[in-house]
Design goal:
single chain, about 80 residues, alpha+beta, two-stranded parallel sheet, two-stranded antiparallel sheet, about 45% helix, elongated, 4-oxalocrotonate tautomerase, EC 5.3.2.6, 4-OT-like_dom
């Protein structure tokens, strides 16, 4: 029985998760010759404030990127 553990940080819709589970299940069933009912998929979601990479929280990294985008949008001279 195949087990797949997916860990995601950031917003993901129910529809996106549903499609992801369907795609992974279909792929494993085809590749491994297992019945789709045997494929087990779990999704763990992490809040951006509870996940860090490269020495900073993802929420801080995304906040800094959003601030930069806002500054670029406000500067029409570019």
């Amino acid at each position: 029985m195949p087990f797949v553990d997916i860990r995601l940080a950031g917003p993901v819709t129910r529809d996106q998760k549903s499609a992801l589970v369907a795609d992974i299940t279909r792929s494993l069933a085809e590749r491994l010759g297992k019945p789709a009912a045997a494929v087990q998929v779990t999704i763990t979601e992490y809040a951006l404030e509870n996940y860090g990479a490269g020495g900073e929280l993802l929420v801080d990294r995304l906040s800094a990127a959003a601030i930069g985008e806002d500054a670029n949008a406000a500067d029409t001279s570019r």
